[in-house]
């Protein structure tokens, strides 16, 4: 089975946890939707192209930084005693927020489009990006150090996982994680993957996310999994 593998480095990054507002907390690795969104942007895909991704990597430490935050309430008129910005009669508040940053991030991404004919399209879009890519926030630049098409094959033997990774819960038992307790020790996340637009009332739509329950874990061994040609375990979902 052929997939696209991307090795990338980021000096800093924030993969925002959606529910964090006052302090914009980051996931330890980018969620599936962030990687899929980057691929779609660089490929100029304007509608969803189904694909599976596997995400693993590491970071050295975390720090925090300031950012300028803008807030507004739908339909609220500008009030000079309350708002700092006047947007054609509507009020916007401007202030300072805090954001968590991962420092010195290295990632290994595996991408498998459901339509195999898109393999070359995605490969060339990532190998020769039309602009400097980013992953996370717009300013979180990503240096693609290696992009290639690799073969993955299923190994029915003990394979060490050398990086932290997201392991979908649906496959944790198949690869043997439940046997050594990693399923209970790892951190469970419900990660966004893709969405569909649902009409909630006339003229208004809402994104309904397809979520994947995944375990974030590191330093473990699987006894049955897909592995690429360099020994990296692949957890496609």
From TrEMBL:
Do you know which NCBIfam families this protein is assigned to? cas_Cas5t, CRISPR_cas5
User: Sorted alphabetically, which keywords does the UniProt record give?
Assistant: Antiviral defense
From what organism does this protein derive? Lactobacillus intestinalis DSM 6629
Q: Any idea what this protein is called? A: Type I-B CRISPR-associated protein Cas5
């Amino acid at each position: 089975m052929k997939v696209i593998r991307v090795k990338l480095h980021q000096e800093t990054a924030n993969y925002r946890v959606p529910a964090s507002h006052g302090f914009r907390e980051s996931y330890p690795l980018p969620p599936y939707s962030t990687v899929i969104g980057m691929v779609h942007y660089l490929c100029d895909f304007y509608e969803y192209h189904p694909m599976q991704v596997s995400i693993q990597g590491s970071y050295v430490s975390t720090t925090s930084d300031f950012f300028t935050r803008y807030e507004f309430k739908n339909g609220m008129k500008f009030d000079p005693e309350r708002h700092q910005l006047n947007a054609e009669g509507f009020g916007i508040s401007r202030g300072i927020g805090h954001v968590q940053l991962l420092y010195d991030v290295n990632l290994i991404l595996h991408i498998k489009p459901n339509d195999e004919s898109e393999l070359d399209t995605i490969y060339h879009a990532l190998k020769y990006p039309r602009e400097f890519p980013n992953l996370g926030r717009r300013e979180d630049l990503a240096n693609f150090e290696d992009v290639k098409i690799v073969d993955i094959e299923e190994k029915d033997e003990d394979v060490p996982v050398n990086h932290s990774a997201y392991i979908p819960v649906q496959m944790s038992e198949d690869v043997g994680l439940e046997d050594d307790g990693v399923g209970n020790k790892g951190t469970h996340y419900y990660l966004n993957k893709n969405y569909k637009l649902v009409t909630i009332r006339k003229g208004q739509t809402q994104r309904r996310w397809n979520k994947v329950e995944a375990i974030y874990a590191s330093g473990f061994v699987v006894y049955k999994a897909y592995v690429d040609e360099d020994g990296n375990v692949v957890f496609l979902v």
